[in-house]
Amino acid sequence: MGIDGRLTVAMPKGRIFRDALNLLGEAGLTLPRELVEDSRKLIVEVPGEDLSFLLVKPVDVPTCVEHGAADLGVVGKDVLLEEERDVYELLDLQISPCRLSLAGTTDWQPVLNPKVATKYPRIANRWFRKQGQQVEVICLNGSVELAPLTGLADRIVDIVSTGRTLRENGLVEMEEITRVTSRLIANRASYHLKSRQIGELYERLAQVVKEEGGLQ
Ligand code: PRP
């Protein structure tokens, strides 16, 4: 489980990374240079602590945790809802707040069976089914905002944080699907086998979240 008996935490490279690092720093963890600086190392050990970080793509955090490559992970609720992995969700870290929304061009007209581009096919399919709307979901891996501008799709389901990407591409938010913050997740076996180590880190993080309402 994890690497050597150490506690291993999967960290998402990208948008959440800085907020997650700040939170860990606030919780009193010494952050190794390779983690803070731009490094290509994928496994980073914390000196003096029985702790290692795995640096992975956000979408791969729940996979690493479910399969036990990492004991814990930091991941957005959007990815958790999409991936539906068998992991424990331990704590809302209240960092990197954003929302998953339906968006499109201002002159969008309703059509039969509209095409919806997204990185979140499961969430989108579930949401439209609940609305009683039939749509064709088109999966993209990034630059989703391009889809309504190029005729690839009629609308998109994507993350809106500052709203800048939508604005700069002439798109508008139409409906919020769900609010998103980052979560601490745990491998089910590790949660029991490493309960002391996980409990300690959980308490340190929960204390920061409680005191500061997370670091926005
Ligand atoms: C997300 C999302 C938008 C952007 C929204 O992408 O897909 O493109 O952030 O942020 P804004 O409202 O502040 O402009 P992310 O940065 O997660 O990277 P990705 O495109 O590689 O998925």
From TrEMBL:
It comes from the Bacteria. Residues 57-206 form the ATP phosphoribosyltransferase catalytic domain. Coiled coil: none annotated. It is found in: Cytoplasm. GO terms for molecular function: glycosyltransferase activity. It catalyses: 1-(5-phospho-beta-D-ribosyl)-ATP + diphosphate = 5-phospho-alpha-D-ribose 1-diphosphate + ATP. The keyword tRNA processing does not apply. It is an enzyme of class 2 (transferase). Signal peptide: none annotated. Keywords: Amino-acid biosynthesis, ATP-binding, Cytoplasm, Glycosyltransferase, Histidine biosynthesis, Nucleotide-binding, Transferase. Pfam families: HisG. Pathway: Amino-acid biosynthesis; L-histidine biosynthesis; L-histidine from 5-phospho-alpha-D-ribose 1-diphosphate: step 1/9. Lacks the C-terminal regulatory region which is replaced by HisZ. HAMAP family: HisG_Short (MF_01018). Belongs to the ATP phosphoribosyltransferase family. Short subfamily. Catalyzes the condensation of ATP and 5-phosphoribose 1-diphosphate to form N'-(5'-phosphoribosyl)-ATP (PR-ATP). Has a crucial role in the pathway because the rate of histidine biosynthesis seems to be controlled primarily by regulation of HisG enzymatic activity. NCBIfam families: hisG. This is ATP phosphoribosyltransferase.
